[in-house]
Design brief:
The complex is a heterodimer of chains A (about 90) and B (about 850).
Chain A: H1 2-15, E1 22-26, E2 32-38, E3 41-47, E4 52-55, E5 60-63, E6 69-72, E7 77-81, E8 84-87
Parallel strand pairs in A: 1-7
Antiparallel strand pairs in A: 1-4, 2-3, 2-5, 5-6, 7-8
Chain B: H1 2-21, H2 35-60, H3 65-87, H4 90-103, H5 116-166, H6 173-231, H7 246-277, H8 283-310, H9 324-354, H10 358-381, E1 385-386, E2 392-393, H11 397-416, H12 419-450, H13 454-457, H14 459-468, H15 472-501, H16 506-518, E3 520-522, E4 525-527, H17 529-560, H18 565-590, H19 595-612, H20 614-629, E5 637-640, E6 643-650, E7 654-659, E8 664-668, H21 669-674, E9 677-679, E10 687-695, H22 701-714, E11 725-731, E12 736-744, H23 750-767, H24 792-816
Antiparallel strand pairs in B: 1-2, 3-4, 5-6, 5-9, 6-7, 7-8, 10-12, 11-12
Classes of the chains: A alpha+beta (about 90), B alpha+beta (about 850).
């Protein structure tokens, strides 16, 4: 039984890869807004102080609070501190 | 590694192409941009050019469905490339930002001015950043444009499909003659085309054609023969078997259909491929031949499936219990339907290749679709079953009406001139019907396998059992698993096939798959099925790794290291729980759930846990303490409250104790921690046994004392140190009471020693005439039979019995002395 399970598990593992969204963290004490362009529309993503938000699972363009633009593939973490965004 | 290298190469190639194609690009900036900006500007410009091209193609509006899907796939690819080109700026942007931060803000008014170098560097960095932002803005706009175009394509395809179904052709008598005329002309055309091709083949390509056909036949033969060798009897129905089981009927149906159809498909596919490869085919012939092969494959599959399910010759092997005559009829009708649908498909592709006038297509499709509609209605009118009264019974009402409806729709649509609709319906009847019935067979077989022991009786099951040496229960579970697997496979294969038939293209389905894999969002948590699956998988792997590690640590390392059994058990249990917890945490994060969210939930729940799960938690913590402190270990003889016995297993919540009567007592750990626990075998198994002995008053007490001490000393199991001791306990009411006290190395073996010593004392005392008094007990007189006064029924019964006895006695008496008068028996 175990052998079957192990073999099946190995097969499944080989065929699957986990998908994750990008996430944004606002480390400031005031709300910040990101402008996210995803799937043909621009939308504003408001982040309250200290909030973490998952967004953009398939890649998107983001305009940061200080006007910087970035392209995200959907696996990054954006940290906002002092109005400036850093990508990790 | 390879991917990134490939990407670089691709970017270089695109750059090169862009440089050649567009010497003067629209993004002609004032200052020549350096490095990455220039590169990416070029890339984005070339991507924009491609998007422009695709948009122009769309605007011409001459696309059919397949090419629209193709355009959409290209657009999606472009969108991904745009994103990558945007990401390429990131290293530079990070550099610029870091440097800007180092330089600091420009000095405010009133502060001493900074060096000119700093100001100019900041200025140039800001300029570069602005440029990057501008390029990214362009990319962003293009990505919006791509998405708008994709939406447009979706709309165009919907319109196209609607058009196909609702377009009406004028049908009148003039059409008939026109069709006959054009049909003759086109057939002549067709004949000439095929004839010239054949002449060409015979004179130039005969050898390669024969070789290709031979190889294709060989490939098909390999499948047929290999399948026969591999699956043996599963392949064909055995006429001698009187009553084959449902599962064997199913497997024969499934395998015979699958193997033969695969062989035919392989033959056709290989033939086509090799013809194409050797240059035997010309463009027009290739298109016609491929549609012909497609039709042959479908008709063959339908007929094989029909034969397998209906089995007109062997009633025993029929999957659906229809009557033999009806089975033959159904076979004929089904194959005819498939044939005419295929003919329609083939002819329409021939007309397309030959560029025939539309009237011919309309006329031919009109005739064929009406025929197909009639056939479908005829199928609905067959009475396949035998009712309870012995007369033929029609299909179930719903199915019958569905068939009438489909056939009627086809005929009416065709006669009204909606040829596209009629054709669509008739094709769907054959293809979707075939797929649905195959799926239904799959579900049936999974049900059949799911039954008790069914899997063990299959050939595959027997082989697995022999090869892996597994027991029946595991095999049964394997059967359950394989039935679930079959269900899944049926859905995974069947549903896309049906969608494919209904006009969805592979591109649509891959898009859906991407979406499903990416997951959906609820609040701030993203759920993705792939993520959850991989979480479960990671947990399973973690679980098995933990078990394996546990076994290795326990069996190899600690057993070899002569570690104490209790420590071994503690370490094993602790490792097991730690591993499980770790696997769980990794699995949760692999599933895409944020652990910090979980902490929030745990915080909110802790109050509830505090109240509701108080006992469980306290037992859990107690279990951990037991593992660490080890007041007893597995195999110890402990006494906890009223329970006394051997410890069998220490789990985290409860401890299993087996009493000496072999009763398993599950004792919550908190009780073992909170109250006193006696352990006979804590540090060692040393234990004292006391045996009470009474000696009669007037005996030689000194002698008795000596004898008892000797007996205790002389027993081999009794320890010399501490020495055995005989205590004169009390002047009892009936005897002088002694206690023989001695120590044993293993208190668990005390029963035999106690027996030995008691027997020895009894024997020695008897020999030495020392009495062991026993308290005399008063002899209670046996109670006499009482007249049951309190129960009327018993009373009546007794009276009856007495009467019967009297009667019997009287009869006996009268037999013995017939002459004498009746007299009661003296007894």
């Amino acid at each position: 039984m175990k052998r079957f399970l192990v073999a099946a598990g190995a097969l499944l593992l080989a065929s699957s890869g986990a998908a994750h969204a990008a996430s944004a963290v606002n480390l400031d004490s005031e709300p910040r807004t990101l402008i996210v362009t995803e799937g043909g529309s621009k939308s504003e993503l408001a982040l309250a102080a200290g909030e973490t938000v998952e967004f953009c699972p398939n890649g998107c363009f983001v305009t940061m609070p200080n006007g910087d633009r970035e392209a995200l593939t959907g696996s990054e973490t954006v940290e906002i501190s002092g109005g400036v965004a850093r990508i990790k | 590694m390879f991917a990134s290298a490939a990407r670089h190469v691709a970017i270089m190639l695109i750059l090169l192409a862009a440089a050649l194609v567009m010497p003067a690009s629209a993004q002609d900036v004032v200052r020549a941009p350096s490095g990455v900006i220039a590169d990416q500007q070029e890339v984005i410009a070339s991507l924009t050019a491609k998007i422009d091209g695709l948009e122009r193609k769309l605007d011409q509006g001459k696309e059919d469905d397949a090419s629209l899907v193709d355009v959409r796939l290209q657009l999606e690819q472009l969108s991904r490339e745009l994103l990558h080109s945007g990401v390429a700026f990131r290293p530079r942007l990070t550099e610029i930002n870091a440097r800007l931060e180092q330089l600091g803000k420009p000095p405010a008014e009133g502060q001493p001015p900074e060096a000119a170098v700093v100001t100019s560097e900041r200025q140039s960095l800001s300029d570069e950043k602005a440029e990057i932002n501008a390029v990214l803005g362009v990319a962003e706009n293009q990505s919006i444009r791509i998405n708008k175009l994709i939406d447009k394509i979706t709309e165009m395809r919907r319109d196209l499909f609607q058009n196909l179904l609702t377009k009406r052709y004028n049908i009148n008598f003039a059409l008939v003659f026109e069709v006959i005329d054009t049909f003759e002309a086109e057939m002549g055309d067709f004949y000439r085309t095929v004839g010239s091709w054949l002449r060409f083949v015979v004179s130039f390509k005969l050898n390669s054609m024969l070789a290709a056909t031979f190889f294709a036949l060989a490939a098909a033969a390999v499948i047929i023969i290999g399948g026969r060798r591999l699956f043996g009897r599963l392949f064909e129905p055995d006429a001698r078997v009187q009553d084959p089981s449902y599962l064997s009927r199913l497997s024969v149906a499934f395998w015979s259909t699958l193997m033969q159809t695969t062989a035919v498909i392989v033959f056709l596919g290989v033939t086509y491929f090799l013809y194409d490869y050797f240059g035997v085919l010309r463009g027009d012939i290739g298109a016609m031949l491929s549609s012909l092969f497609y039709v042959i494959a479908v008709v063959f599959f339908v007929s094989r499936l029909g034969t397998a399910v209906l089995s007109p010759r062997l009633p025993n092997w029929r999957l659906i219990p229809v009557e033999s005559r009806a089975a033959r009829w159904l076979m004929l009708l089904i194959i005819a339907t498939a044939f005419f649908t295929g003919l329609d498909y083939f002819l329409s592709s021939v007309y397309r290749v030959l560029g025939s006038p539309i009237t011919l297509t309309v006329g031919e499709a009109l005739v064929l679709t009406v025929i197909i509609g009639v056939l479908v209605i005829l199928i609905g009118m067959v009475h396949p079953f035998i009712g309870e009264d012995g007369r033929p019974k029609p299909w179930p009402r719903l199915l019958r009406y569905l068939l009438y409806f489909l056939g009627g729709t086809t005929i009416v649509a065709a006669l009204l001139g909606y040829i596209g609709l009629a054709r669509f319906v008739s094709q769907q009847i054959v293809i979707t019907g075939t797929i649905l019935s195959t799926m239904y067979l799959g579900f049936l077989s999974s049900q059949a396998i799911n039954e008790d022991d069914a899997f063990a009786k299959t050939t595959v099951g027997r082989r697995i059992q022999r090869y892996f040496k597994i027991d029946d229960i595991t095999l049964d579970q394997l059967g359950l698993a394989s039935s679930i697997f079959i269900n899944l496979m049926v859905l995974v294969i069947g549903v896309p096939l049906i969608l494919f038939q209904w006009g969805f293209k592979p591109g649509d389905m891959t898009t859906w798959l991407y979406k499903i894999a990416a997951g959906f969002q609820i609040g701030s948590i993203t759920f993705s099925p792939v993520g959850i699956l991989s979480g479960i998988l990671v947990f399973a792997i973690g679980y098995f790794l933990t078990r394996w590690f546990q076994g290795w640590l326990d069996g190899s390392v600690m057993a070899r290291g002569k570690v104490d059994a209790g420590v071994r058990n503690s370490i094993r249990t602790a490792v097991g729980y730690a591993g499980l917890a770790l696997a769980g945490l990794i699995a949760i994060s692999a599933a895409g759930l944020d652990l910090s969210n979980l902490a929030l939930v745990a915080g909110a729940l802790s109050l509830g846990i505090g109240f509701g799960l108080q006992n469980v938690v306290s037992n859990f913590v107690s279990g951990l303490i037991l593992l660490a402190e080890r007041p007893f270990k597995v195999g110890d003889w402990i006494v906890a409250g009223a329970v006394s016995g051997t410890v069998k297993k220490i789990s985290v919540r409860a401890t299993e104790i087996e009493t000496f009567q072999r009763q398993s007592v599950i004792l919550p750990n908190s009780e073992l921690i909170n109250s006193a626990v006696g352990n006979w075998t804590h540090r060692n198994k040393l234990g004292r046994i006391d045996i009470k002995v009474g000696v009669a008053y007037g005996s030689d007490v000194k002698r008795a004392h000596e004898l008892m001490l000797d007996i205790a000393r002389s027993h081999p199991m009794v320890l010399k140190n501490p020495e055995p001791f005989v205590l004169f306990v009390n002047f009892g009411p009936a005897a002088l009471e002694f206690e023989v006290r001695f120590f044993l190395a293993d208190v668990l073996a005390s029963n035999n020693v106690q027996n030995d010593i008691r027997f020895a004392i009894l024997e020695t005392f008897a020999r030495e005439h020392i009495d062991i008094p026993s308290t005399p007990r008063a002899q209670e007189p046996k109670p006499a039979d009482k007249w049951p006064v309190d129960d009327e029924q018993v009373e009546a019964q007794v009276a009856e019995e007495e009467e019967a006895r009297d009667k019997r006695a009287a009869e006996a008496a009268s037999r013995r002395k017939p002459g004498r008068s009746k007299k009661a028996d003296p007894e």
